Amino acid sequence: MFNQLLTKAFLHPESTYDQRWVLFSILSGVVMVAAVLRVRSKSNIPVINKYSGDFFLKKAHTEYLNNAKALIAEGNKKFDGPFRVLTTLGSRVILPPRFTDWAKNCKDLDHPKLVADEYFARYPGFDGSGMVVDPGRMMINITKTKLSQSSQCNIFNERISGILEKEWTNTQGNWRTVDWALDAQRYVGLMSAPIFAGPELANDPQWHELTVTYTINLFNGVRALRAWPPLLRPIVHWILPECSTCRAQVKLARNKLKPVLEKRAHEKKEELAAGRNPTIYEDAITWSEDLAAGRPVDHAAMQLAFAISAMHTTTELLRQALLDICAHPYLIQPLREEAEAAVAKHGWTTAGLSQMQLLDSVVKETQRLKPGSLVNLERKALEDIVMPNGTILPKGTNIAMDTSVMWDPTVYLDPETYDGYRFYNNRHGGGPRARDAQLVSTSSDFIAFGLGKPVCPGRFFAANEIKVALANILMRYDVRLPDGAKPRVLHYGFEMLSDPSAKVEVKRRITVK
Ligand code: HEM
């Protein structure tokens, strides 16, 4: 009967939008209660934010959004094992850090399956996520094999130096305030654009806007869709404005890419006809075509996959790293000298960047204290799994690892204190910590880039991009925080966000090499 009502409401031409919403609300209420009851009876893993009378999880969600860090700490203290947090993106079983190595090696815990299911990778508009988890792994393969080339460091340098000269000033003068939170986001987009989308779109403002806003829109879409019971999602996504925005962005991506693909195909035909070698483009469009070897490629989904993987994550780390440097000004001169020496010897290459070891340490220390999320290694149980302590993770359970190991005093000395030299000293200390002291190193004590099979393949690219941007800034400008400014890290659920209103003051240096 519900089905009939639903179909009628949608297909009847006289049904108004409001009527449909009323019907949906009633139906969803019923299904939501059923879903809540199901979650509660599904397993015996204790829930940390369960409150009596909180039938619609309002308090649970408020606590999650405002106090996730405290909830995790409480869960670790209260239960000697996994516990469940009810989040606005569904329920997550949080595993304490001592299970990290076990989770890394457990074959029945799967990352792509979680992304596909929980982030709606199969829905139209969410095509970017769909491409990341595509079993063909084309996007992952391109990231692994084509990104992080030495020549790309030079592209980063040309882009960022040009932008800074134009936007932050190329002449000496007084200190000026720049909107760093906004600039960092734009600069990451502009630095990556030639490598992902090629020269035709690299300076297109609409393309740029699309790639930097798609991730946020996608998450808004996920959040909006999550608020609806699973049974209704395949229908309701067509009318949710947040999902419509994602579909519109995918359409825009297709429209923007179409003339580029046509132009390149035409160009190639003409060059071959004239007996010349076709122009070789070094970007993700070409690499996708090469890898596909004649099979069709969804270029829009591919570009949006890069956007969701690379933009927000890299921006967040770059943003916070400069704020941390400004908050610890004693680092500026040694960082500058290190960068100048490395560039003088090796130019803007991977060899040059590998010489910037203090910078590497500084960025890693930022990431230790502010990883993107309080939890990581998100996985779905493909089967019923028995954990080493005997806890059963029923098939379909979504788990994530608590990242608090990164500020555990038994692992990191004086863990709450920012120490820009921490990983530099580890690297040169010769002890067991030297092995995982680099920004791109991962271990069970440092899981900001994940761990195991789905460990982030883009971390080398991100590290290069961030180091080129910071080295350029420090070589060209004096930087400081505005008087009295203390940018805060914002917590929103599991997310840890760099202060979105942060400003920095910059002044052009006398000597720029
Ligand atoms: C500071 C920047 C970045 C951070 C913090 C970051 C973080 C992560 C994390 C935590 C994961 C999940 C790993 C796991 O669950 O074990 C991941 C996966 C992934 N990242 Fe990154 N990432 C960053 C930049 C990038 C960039 C620039 C790219 C591509 C250009 C990229 C591409 C990917 C891909 C394709 C995956 C999925 C891998 C798979 O499923 O096998 N990431 N990243």
Short description:
The protein is of the alpha+beta class. It is built from 20 helices and twelve strands.
Report on the structure:
The protein is an alpha+beta fold. It has one domain: Cytochrome P450 (Cytochrome p450). Helix content is 55%, strand content 9%. The chain has helices at 2-11, 17-42, 58-78, 100-105, 111-118, 127-132, 138-146, 150-167, 180-197, 199-202, 205-226, 233-236, 241-273, 284-292, 299-327, 332-346, 350-354, 357-369, 422-429, 459-476, and strands spanning 83-87, 90-95, 109-110, 176-178, 375-381, 385-386, 392-393, 398-402, 477-480, 490-492, 495-497, 504-508. Strands 1-2-8-5-3 form a five-stranded mixed sheet. Strands 4-12-9 form a three-stranded antiparallel sheet. It has a two-stranded antiparallel ribbon with strand order 6-7. α11 packs antiparallel against α13 (241-273) and α15 packs across α20. It is globular, with a radius of gyration of 24 Å. It starts with a helix and ends in a 5-residue tail after the last strand. Mean pLDDT is 91; it is low at 1-20 and 30-41. The site of protoporphyrin IX containing FE has 30 residues, from α5, α7, α15, β5 and α20.
